[in-house]
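If your schedule permits, I should be very grateful for your opinion on a structural question. I would ask you to consider whether the tokens describe a fold that such a sequence might reasonably adopt. Thank you for your consideration; the sequence and its tokens are set out here.
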Amino acid sequence: MNKIAGLFILMSISGFGQQNQDVEKPIRNLFLGMKNADAELVKSAFTEHAILQTITKDGSVKGDSLQDFITSVSKFSKGDLEERITIEAIHTDGNLASVFTPYSFYLKGKLSHCGANSFQLVKQNNEWKIQYIIDTRRKDNCKEIK
């Protein structure tokens, strides 16, 4: 009986780990696309009608167009943009996932700002995509993420 329980636990942990990797994939692709100035890889991370927002210093919320964001990434050279993240939490329920990631952002190798990203992802056609991202941005009290 103990061997069966142990096998069940091991299978559950393995499945959970794979699910987390699947959820993380579009997020990792987003930042890899930014680092490589690969607009197509960035675009592939998002749903067709994704929403991008930033919370400003005064607490208001500013929206960005996905197409404008993709266009801006394509104007940089490979290596100019690098966002380093730490995934602190992943929560899933069916075709919905929520991911929280503190980050440090580097522009041409220099720490520019930091903050946190909150991602909402949906599973479409058996693939996770970013539907919504909202972030904070600050220049003070930034910790470098390796």
In short: Confidence is low (pLDDT under 50) at residues 7-16. The CA atoms of residues 106 and 112 lie 5 Å apart.
